[in-house]
């Protein structure tokens, strides 16, 4: 038990080793028999492959590595439960590089945040890998896919465990790279290639702000000598260690103006905006659905997009120190994202796109909670959302797999009979995300709503309306996909047990984890108790007891709002009492706005075409006229002069001799003249 | 008996003669088109120089023979040069059938 806690650094190493071995296997020369049969999916030929290049080995390596990580995660949960106001965090660091006084370290930090994320990432990852075994079984790139999955796990676990902001940034970028590779996994599809590029570029914008924030913070704390003093008291900690954030921000708040502190907070938050798909850097997430569905579930629903929220939690002292600038900024961005995501989701007909916008909206809820200072509520929603959203995505993948790649919900319907396990788990996920009937989403979302009600009634009303909308569009996808009659042409296959088993497993936490950690069940302490157990407790603006007081009122209201959404969706898509075309006609203006995704993509397109392309055009003209003019001018003068002078070289000896003789004569005469004068 | 008035043959006489010879040779090299003629004109120029060397030596420092020795060196070298030059001319003639200097201007720029 203790061994697993002490060797947490191994957790990212397992998938890294798996990734390297799978890459090695792919680089090994393949026997001729395999090449000849490639594309036919011939199983005999794959037996001739080298051991490392086999599908089974790739699967075993990746899932084995994840399983080992899960064992560590469970051990660390045990560690967390056994604490009694004693040790709240374990930090271990190894020196990475040194430049003068600047010593950078790599390390692991174990506290309640880490435990939660470690469990979410390894648990969901493991079941998604099992699901992937079924989903990608006939894909030629099976081993490559598992290699990339292992690479992602390495990056994500390194990010979760990192002890300081600099290391976080390294793994932050690695996560971005793995996301890029996996979105563009089917790169022969132009849409997938473009989507991966878009994800990468949009993330660069946010990461640039994040990097500036880190450098600003590093510059200020390092030159002010704060870290020198801090590290002399805590010699084992790393530069910009998360454990040192509280005293650091305290010192900063006294030393630098408030706007500078706010600026650092906003710059660091820009990283979160890009990764967690917050307006206006959200446009990559829906496009990222071009990647294989397990990737949408793992990276673009459960883990990587939540890393933005996790980052805010990590640097929360910095955010909380700027109550006038950073916190309102984060809140406003979060609320806008929640509303924009939910409204767009209502108009989507592609099942994965609808889920993607719903993810975006839910991330908006989490970020709002962070901005409101309801630190534990945001993380609790991250925790529960990871389970039911991963399950919903896997369910949509199962539907798409059964319908031979069809993603349009208008060509589905009545699938509950043919895909019973998928349908029931999808319904559980829908209920959970709508926050109905005391499922996990109810508890976490209502904590956010309670925090909003406490903080500002406008935010509460906006978020409640969004929650109602969430219930409406989620039940819309359910009714369109699973109820009514089948409208598609594709032959519906049977469910694959390899794919439905993970769905069934994920359904359990989707239903129960909320109530288990709500603080109302079996005498178990609330989720927030563990999270605020540590150094952040004095920062959380809302002690849990205050939330409890708000909870009943808010809880009942949100149940009502959620049920309204359910009833409306049933009326429109289940009973067909209201014709959707009429609604589209009556609400033409909002419908167009939502269907065109609030015109974000068009505005960016316009900005790129009008602004960026104009500058590019001007630069191009400048380059062609001025720069090329200088370069070509030098060339022209040289060759022109040469062309003139070369006529002197006649090739005839007589000319040379004449010139020689005349020159000597001229020399002698000149000499004589000069001598006479002298 | 009348004594014919002969102008004194001094250094300037020799130098004038040498200059005339050199000029003739130079003109031959500069204008001549036949390569054999060019070679012969080069010999003429060399011999003009020899004449000047001997004459100057005899006038400036009569006891010393360095001018004469140098002239003999020049003769030796010019013999070798003539041999090589004629060999080149013969080779050119064998290869191209021409000994016209104007025919060889591949080095034209």
Overall pLDDT metric of chain B: 87
> Main β-sheet of chain A: number of strands, strand sense, barrel status?
2 strands, antiparallel
Largest interface: A-B, 13 and 15 residues
Rg value of chain A: 31 Å
Number of helices of chain A: 29
Number of helices of chain B: 3
CATH topology of chain B: Helix Hairpins
Largest sheet of chain B: none
Query: For the CA atoms, what is the radius of gyration of chain B?
Result: 19 Å
Count of strand segments of chain A: 2
Helix content of chain A: over 70%
* Overall pLDDT confidence of chain A: 81
Helices and strands of chain B, in order, run as HHH
**What is the CATH top level name of chain B?**
Mainly Alpha
N- to C-terminal distance of chain A: 107 Å
What fraction of the residues of chain A are assigned to beta strands by DSSP?
A: under 5%
Number of domains of chain B: 1
- Write the CATH architecture name of chain B: Orthogonal Bundle
Fraction of residues of chain B in helices? over 70%
Structural class of chain B: mainly alpha
Describe the structure using short key phrases.
heterodimer, A: 678 residues, mainly alpha, two-stranded antiparallel sheet, 29 helices, B: 109 residues, Helix Hairpins, elongated
Write a structural description:
The complex is a heterodimer of chains A (678) and B (109). Chain A is built from 29 helices and two strands. Chain A is mostly helical and 678 residues long. The longest helix of chain A is centred in the last third of the chain and has 46 residues. Chain A is globular and about 120 Å long. Chain B has a single domain, classed as Helix Hairpins (Orthogonal Bundle), CATH 1.10.287. Chain B contains three helices and no strands. The mean pLDDT of chain B is 87.
What's the SSE blueprint?
The complex is a heterodimer of chains A (678) and B (109).
Chain A: H1 2-6, H2 10-27, H3 32-37, H4 43-46, H5 55-81, E1 90-99, E2 102-110, H6 112-135, H7 142-161, H8 165-183, H9 190-223, H10 226-233, H11 245-255, H12 258-275, H13 284-287, H14 293-302, H15 307-314, H16 316-320, H17 326-347, H18 351-371, H19 375-402, H20 420-434, H21 440-455, H22 457-482, H23 497-516, H24 527-531, H25 544-574, H26 580-586, H27 588-595, H28 600-645, H29 653-677
Antiparallel strand pairs in A: 1-2
Helix pairs in contact in A: 2-5, 2-7, 5-6, 5-7, 6-7, 6-14, 6-19, 6-23, 7-8, 8-9, 9-12, 12-15, 14-19, 17-18, 17-22, 17-27, 18-19, 18-21, 18-22, 19-20, 19-21, 19-23, 20-22, 20-23, 21-22, 21-23, 21-25, 22-25
Chain B: H1 11-31, H2 35-60, H3 66-96
Helix pairs in contact in B: 1-2, 2-3
């Amino acid at each position: 038990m203790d061994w697993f806690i002490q060797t947490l650094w191994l957790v990212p190493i397992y998938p890294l080793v798996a990734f390297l071995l799978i890459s090695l296997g792919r680089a090994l020369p393949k026997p001729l028999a395999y090449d000849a049969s490639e594309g036919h999916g011939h199983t005999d030929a794959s037996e001739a492959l080298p051991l490392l290049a086999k599908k089974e080995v790739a699967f075993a390596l990746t899932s084995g590595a994840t399983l080992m990580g899960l064992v560590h995660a469970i051990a660390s949960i045990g560690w967390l439960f056994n604490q009694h106001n004693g040790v709240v965090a374990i930090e271990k660091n190894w020196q990475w590089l040194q430049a003068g006084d600047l010593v950078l370290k790599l390390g692991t930090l174990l506290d309640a945040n880490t435990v939660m994320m470690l469990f979410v990432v390894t648990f969901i990852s493991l079941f998604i890998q099992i699901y992937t075994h079924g989903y990608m079984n006939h894909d030629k790139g099976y081993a490559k896919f598992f290699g990339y999955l292992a690479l992602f796990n390495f990056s994500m676990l390194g990010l979760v465990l990192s002890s300081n902001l600099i290391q976080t940034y390294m793994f932050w970028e690695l996560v971005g790279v793995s996301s890029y590779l996996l979105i563009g996994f089917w790169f022969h599809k132009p849409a997938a290639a473009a989507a991966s590029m878009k994800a990468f570029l949009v993330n660069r914008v946010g990461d640039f702000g994040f990097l500036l924030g880190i450098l600003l913070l590093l510059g200020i704390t390092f030159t002010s000598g704060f870290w020198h003093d801090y590290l002399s008291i805590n010699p084992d900690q790393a530069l910009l260690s998360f454990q040192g954030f509280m005293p650091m921000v305290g010192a900063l708040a006294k030393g630098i103006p408030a706007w500078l502190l706010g600026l650092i907070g906003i710059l660091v938050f820009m990283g979160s905006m890009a990764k967690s798909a917050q307006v206006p850097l959200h446009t990559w997430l829906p496009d990222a659905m071009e990647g294989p569905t397990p990737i949408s579930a793992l990276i673009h629903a459960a883990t990587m997009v939540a890393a933005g929220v996790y980052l805010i939690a990590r640097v929360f002292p910095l955010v909380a120190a700027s109550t006038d600038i950073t916190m309102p900024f984060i809140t406003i961005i979060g609320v806008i994202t929640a509303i924009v995501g939910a409204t767009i989701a209502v108009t989507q007909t592609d099942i994965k796109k609808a889920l993607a916008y719903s993810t975006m909206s839910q991330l908006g809820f989490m970020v709002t909670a962070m901005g409101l200072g309801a630190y534990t509520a945001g993380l609790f929603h991250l925790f529960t959302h990871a389970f039911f959203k991963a399950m919903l995505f896997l369910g949509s993948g199962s539907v798409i797999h059964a319908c031979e790649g069809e993603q349009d919900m208008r060509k589905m319907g009545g699938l509950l009979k043919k895909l019973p396990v998928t349908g029931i788990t999808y319904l559980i996920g829908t209920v959970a995300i709508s926050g109905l009937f005391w499922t996990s989403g109810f508890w976490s979302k209502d904590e956010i709503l309670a925090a909003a009600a406490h903080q500002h009634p406008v935010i509460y009303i906006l978020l409640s309306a969004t929650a109602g909308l969430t219930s409406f569009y989620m039940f819309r996808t359910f009714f369109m996909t699973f109820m009514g009659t089948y409208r598609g042409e594709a032959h519906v296959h049977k469910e694959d047990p390899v794919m439905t088993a993970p769905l069934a497993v994920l359904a359990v936490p989707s239903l129960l984890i909320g109530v288990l950690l709500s603080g109302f069940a079996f005498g178990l302490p609330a989720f927030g108790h563990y999270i605020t157990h540590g150094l952040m407790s004095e920062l959380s603006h809302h002690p849990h007891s205050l939330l409890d007081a708000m909870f009943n009122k808010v809880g009942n209201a949100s149940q009502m709002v959620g049920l309204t959404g359910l009833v409306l969706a049933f009326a429109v898509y289940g009973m067909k009492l209201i014709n959707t075309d009429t609604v589209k006609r009556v609400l033409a203006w909002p419908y167009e706005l939502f269907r065109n995704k609030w015109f974000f993509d068009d505005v960016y397109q316009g900005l790129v075409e009008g602004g960026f392309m104009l500058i590019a055009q001007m630069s191009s003209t400048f380059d062609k006229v001025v720069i090329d003019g200088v370069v070509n001018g030098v060339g022209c003068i040289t060759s022109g002069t040469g062309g003139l002078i070369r006529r002197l070289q006649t090739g005839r000896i007589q000319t040379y001799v004449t010139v020689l003789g005349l020159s000597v004569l001229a020399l002698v005469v000149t000499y004589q003249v000069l001598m006479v004068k002298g | 008996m009348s004594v014919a008035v002969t102008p004194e043959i001094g250094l300037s006489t020799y130098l004038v003669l040498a200059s005339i010879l050199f000029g003739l040779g130079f003109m031959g090299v500069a204008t001549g088109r036949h390569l054999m003629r060019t070679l012969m004109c080069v010999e003429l120029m060399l011999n003009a120089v020899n004449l000047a060397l001997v004459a100057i030596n005899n006038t400036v420092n009569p006891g010393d023979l360095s001018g004469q020795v140098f002239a003999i060196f020049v003769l030796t070298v010019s013999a070798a040069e003539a041999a090589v030059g004629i060999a080149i001319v013969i080779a050119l003639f064998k290869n191209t059938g021409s000994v016209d200097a104007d025919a060889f201007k591949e080095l034209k720029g």
